[in-house]
Amino acid sequence: MALEHETQRVLRPLERGRAGQVDAGAAGGHDGLAVVARGVRKAFGEHVVLDDFSLEMAPGEFVALLGRSGSGKSTFLRVLGALDGDVEGYVRVPQRRAIVFQEPRLQPWQKVLRNVTLGLPGGRATEQSALQALAEVGLSGHAQAWPRTLSGGEAQRVALARALVREPQLLLLDEPFGALDALTKIRMHGLLQDLYRRHRPAVLLVTHDVDEAILLADRVLVLSAGRISLSVPVDIPHPRRRGDAGFSALRSLLLNELGVREAA
Ligand SMILES: Nc1ncnc2c1ncn2[C@@H]1O[C@H](COP(=O)(O)OP(=O)(O)OP(=O)(O)O)[C@@H](O)[C@H]1O
């Protein structure tokens, strides 16, 4: 099966003699999970960042990953994106993945539409999908614009369109709104929610923002000392999450786990 081959090819460096454990299907493995990571260990020299880290994600589940600066959040996201070698443990991810980083990473010498289709086979169908993705992020009129003419929020919307057009089963978001001003960030939260509801990929959102995590995710994780120290479901109904008493209770729990004391 093509997907199994692709998954094995991408993840071979992770397997270290455990290749028999790789087993993926179109919507996940036989266990119905979209992501399985077990006993992941990643070190940079002597510095062990992830140590016996395990996580399972259901298809279409939205998980937010919090942790102190340097705790290893981006490192784990890069493991799921198969961007780094030298990782020990077992990881299974879907073949169709897309990543959005804090910076939009657009190629300045390519127009917006070309940035969205980058790396995809050319042709009318791809272009149509890209135009549709740009429409979904509210940038229909910018297909022929140059990246340097976009605001930070617009550029990040192009990055989201570039991810969407790949129809990912797993969307990896590494602090995608971290560089945006507060108002743009609020708009982007709404946009991400809409896109998520329409496409339903599994999402791993790495963020520093506790409110953002509670607002968007089905489950919030805290990473500390190389593994998950807290995993809490967000059982607060949309769309009035922020006003719910459960919101502030969960916020306090997470801040406490992160060792943060708020100003009175
Ligand atoms: N390529 C690398 N070489 C050496 N050390 C690295 C490398 N990448 C990350 N690290 C180290 O691994 C640790 C975890 O980094 P990572 O970027 O995953 O943390 P993070 O939780 O995402 O941090 P932040 O919230 O500040 O972005 C840090 O101590 C970092 O210095």
Characterise this structure.
Helix 4 (124-136) crosses helix 5 (152-164). The model is unreliable at 1-27 (pLDDT under 50). With 264 residues, the protein is of the alpha/beta class. The chain has a 6-stranded mixed β-sheet with strand order 5-6-7-3-8-9, sandwiched between helices. A 3-stranded antiparallel β-sheet has the order 2-1-4. It has helices at residues 2-15, 73-80, 112-117, 124-136, 152-164, 182-199, 210-216, 245-257; strands at 35-44, 47-57, 62-67, 88-92, 97-100, 170-174, 202-206, 219-224, 227-233. It folds into 2 domains: 2-96 and 168-257, Rossmann fold (3-Layer(aba) Sandwich); 104-167, no CATH class. It contains 8 helices and 9 strands. Strand 6 (170-174), helix 6 (182-199) and strand 7 (202-206) form a beta-alpha-beta unit. Helices cover 35% and strands 22% of the residues. The longest helix is centred in the C-terminal third of the chain and has 18 residues, at 182-199. The structure holds adenosine-5'-triphosphate. Adenosine-5'-triphosphate binds at residues 44, 49, 67, 69-75, 208.
Number of strands: 9
| Principal-axes shape call | globular
- What is the helix content? 25-40%
The H-and-E topology, N to C, reads as HEEEHEEHHHEHEHEEH
What small molecules does this complex bind?
adenosine-5'-triphosphate
Q: Ends: how far apart?
A: 57 Å
> How many distinct domains?
2
Alpha-beta classification: alpha/beta
Strand content: 15-25%
Number of continuous helical runs: 8
